Amino acid sequence: MSFDKIKGNQKLINSFKDLLKDGSFPSCSLFYGQRGIGKFMTAFEIAKAHFCTQTAGEDALFGESRDESRPCDKCPDCTRAEKRLHPDFRVVDASFQAALLDEPVEKQRALKIDSLREIARFAYEKPYISKHKLIIIDQAETMTVEAQNSLLKILEEPPESAKIILVSNDKNLLLPTIVSRASPFRFLPLENQDLAEILGNFSIEYSQAQFLADISGGSVAKALEFASILKEVKSKRHLGKLLAFSMLPPRSQAYEQRAKTALVLDFLISVTAAGKINPPLSFSQKAAEVNRLLSYSSWLKHNVSPRVIMQLALNDYLKFGDFAFGEKI
Ligand SMILES: [Zn+2]
């Protein structure tokens, strides 16, 4: 992978490379910004660069030391870190917690104190093979208050040989005492062109990638979710009024039903606001439609049935026409 393949936020990435080169990467940093813009990926490459032990190919012949600022992606340490098997590396996320608690991954919606206790134990032990341990806490904003307090204790007595990277989609959900102890790095949304190119790597054809880039606010995660909704709507469109029902998960999965409905509403709002409907809506039609969809979003928060909302939201779109891909159609 290496930093070269990460799109967007190049200034920030260059400053990380400088910090790695100087060996002055902060002991606790906070990568924040909306989801799906490369925060975790960047943190992961930093971890690999941190553990990489390769003396880089040709440079080694001339007795030069390796470039500390990038992972070689070939040495055993890069490989171990890549597979999350490096003994001095931990990624705290839903999978980590699921393994720790021996529970299904999909049940891990919050990072609990158990995970942070485990990380505290890990952080204060001496590194096994590297100079420093490295801990990435992904979606740090999902930590419960107890978990955050447990993290705070670690930050108040920083372990000598562990570095922590907090990755967060919403730093306002973190305790101010945590935020103030971390070096902040703000990631920006991706440019549309960069986003469209990334979507191309997921086998999404060009005009559709452009369309998704225009409606996804610079987030790869959002664009990929929208791609799946678009595919589903197009393949089930012939069902007419049954479309809404066919898109909902079973009634027993209440959480998933709400999440799917919220995603469909987000998709429809983004498509409408960006004017990507064929035939085009007039300005007043567009404004009325966005307002209507926004009120459905608020109904969803007030426990109105997702089945009702999904049906109301989608039925109008069947009347409107089709989603416009780029400028070509
Ligand atoms: Zn390496």
Helices and strands, with pairings:
Layout: H1 10-22, E1 28-32, H2 39-51, H3 57-61, H4 76-82, E2 89-92, H5 94-101, H6 113-124, E3 133-137, H7 145-156, E4 162-168, H8 176-179, E5 183-186, H9 192-200, H10 206-215, H11 220-236, H12 243-247, H13 254-273, E6 277-278, H14 283-301, H15 306-320, E7 322-323
Parallel strand pairs: 1-4, 1-5, 2-3, 3-4
Antiparallel strand pairs: 6-7
Zinc ion binds near residues 72, 75 and 78.
Structural class: alpha/beta
Fourth-tier CATH superfamily name of the largest domain: P-loop containing nucleotide triphosphate hydrolases
Rg is 23 Å
**Number of separate strands:** 7
Please give the CATH class of the largest domain: Alpha Beta
The amount of helix comes to 40-55%
* CATH architect. name of the largest domain: 3-Layer(aba) Sandwich
Describe the structure.
By secondary structure, the chain is α/β, with parallel strands linked by helices. The protein is 51% helix and 9% strand. The protein has 15 helices and seven strands. β3, α7 and β4 form a beta-alpha-beta unit. α2 (39-51) packs antiparallel against α4 (76-82). The protein is globular and about 65 Å long. The protein binds zinc ion (ZN). The site of zinc ion has 8 residues, from α4.
